[in-house]
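agent: user wants the full assembly modeled, not chains individually. Plan: 1) parse entity lines 2) check alphabet per entity 3) run joint structure prediction 4) return tokens. Steps 1-2 passed, two entities, 722 residues total. Proceeding.
--- entities ---
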Amino acid sequence: MEPNPPAADPASPCARCGVPLEPGWRFCEGCGADRLARADGAARVRTSESADDLDLGVVAAVTDRGLRRPRNEDAVAIGVLGDVAAAVVCDGVASAPGSARAATDAAVAGLHGLLAALDRGDDAVAATTAGALAAAAAATAVSAPDPGNPPCCTYVSAVVTRDATVVGWVGDSPAYLVDPTGARRLTVDDSAAGRLAADGAEPDDPRLADPAAHALERWLGADSGPVEPRVRVDPAAPGLLLVCSDGLSHYLDAGVVAPADHRAAPAAAARALLGRALAAGGHDNVTVAAIAVAQG
Amino acid sequence: MGHGFEITVDQNEYLPAGGRVMDAIITVRLTGDDPGSTGRDRGVARVVLLDCSGSMSGSRLTQAKRAVTAFVDALPDGAAFAVVRGTDVAGMVYPVAPELAIAGDRTRGEAKDAVRRLGAGGGTAIGSWLALAKRLLADHSAAVRHALLLTDGRDEHETPERLAEVVRDCEGAFTCDALGVGEGTWQADTLERVADGLLGAARGLPDPAALAAEFREVTERLMGTAAVDADLLLWTPAHAEVRFFKQVFPRFVDLTGRGTQVTPRVRAHPTGNWSAEAREYHLSVRVEAGRVGDKGLIAARVHMAVGDERSAERTVHVKWTDDQQLATSINENVAHYAGQSRVPELLDECLSAVAAGDRGLATDRLDRAIAVADAHGNAKAAAHLRNLLDTDPAGTVRVRDGDMTGYLAEMAKIESKLTTRLRDDR
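--- prediction returned ---
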């Protein structure tokens, strides 16, 4: 089972049993102690259930009703577990009553599911899937004011580890990596428009103007059927990882608002982006979470 | 690669203060776009080992010949194959020389002629059949090398030790399914020794007419093979001891101490060939005691390997807690298989009691085995166990007399080791 996955710490005796550890190995060959293991309760979590402005240092988020919508049906949850940071954004579908609750429950369950999987040692990809499945179950369980039109929401998660970024999504809430070259979209929306854009269609392409092209093809909710997230892994390169709702991405993709400064603190970047989205019209709820990637 | 192994670990990772034994159910799934595709040309070499001992004469041999004929007909052009007759020695039926033939119109016709001329006579020494199969298959280049062994009688012309030795010698050379056919004297233990060692299935077919369908099923499974010679690699820390490691689905197979030690910490367990399927394993590890609230341990790490390709690794965790509810709750999947493992044990106790002439005790054990099988949703095992019950003229239900059980008991032994899953998710 070589290679024993490397740990960052230099070689030293096992803190638990004293057996000399191979340099760079993660698990003690003597007793099985995991040098990367976190003690219970180490995860710190903030969610939009308790505040609209969340800050855990390496990860931060804001959510806002915007200027046109009667209420905020977005939700966001952020967390830190050891040296791993994660964020989940869910966008409730306004046309389905109860979707604000679905978004909140899905975001909270998704983040907890993701962190629990990381805590038990799953890799970030497996944890991303586990989080999305937990979110799907939570969204499905929300009671439906209109049984013919059950609550539903989108889902996007981001995990930043020491050496990789992993995003997972269902729907059209995107993730971006902001680095010195600008903002790069990491996700492909689950809609006809999303595929067109991924194939290189310009923002003013007439096909993108058709509202039908933006119809969601995958979502979380009782009427979604079994859902697996799409997952994307990139090596960690210095910058900011953003996940957001379309209240921001609409403007970002159109080039109407400038991307965040890749050197900014996550909280400052999230607030700046919210301000720009509102200044651009704030047509929809705006939610953005930012995670620092490979920044010392 | 269109397919890959996916491992999940199901466990209650919490132990009470001072607790040392950690149990986990490890599920291994072969997944992918179309893992069962027959389009993958992996090359299949197949040998049929047909019991031609004296007891096969009559309808058993007739049905067996019919099944082998259908098997030959179904061979795709270019497939390597041979048919072997087994008695107290093994001999070639087709081709004549001890080598594999290549399927084509001519060889299929010749093979069927040779099968048609087969007669029964002589004893039974299964080890000699396997030894010939090894000679035919061991150096063949086909990725899937498979033997199908069919017997109706007791392996009485060699010692069990000799058979065990031959099976060990054949490990890795080919995989082998073992079929007991007819209402004769075939032994579940013999079939299981062959199937467990050579990573195949053990089946009982009291009705020889079912043979042709069984041959077809085996062929379909082989054609759906999506991973060949897969190893399960199990890492445990030096201060830990594997109490047991066994396959628990689809069939109980004790793997404790089997496999090969590839490094001081890692044991490789061969798992043979996979189609799109899930298998489950129960691992029980004794670790050093730890303190409540410390960071906990890894009791084991598991991954699958095929050649140079490795699956993602999963780990079995241990943490200590003073939360009694957390520490004492038994993982439901662990409980499911621990419960079912009582079924073959209770059947063994029943059959020992029958042999000792204690029908009261035997009936009690059989009743319990049936109840446990029913409780775990294993209707098939329960039905085979019920076959061992008899109602006497006074209306009392008791286990059958020792002389009466015969192949029914052998069937029950095999079926009681076939398990049901807690969640049949695929």
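agent: reporting back. The longest strand of chain B covers residues 21-32. Residues 33-41 of chain B have pLDDT under 50 and may be disordered.
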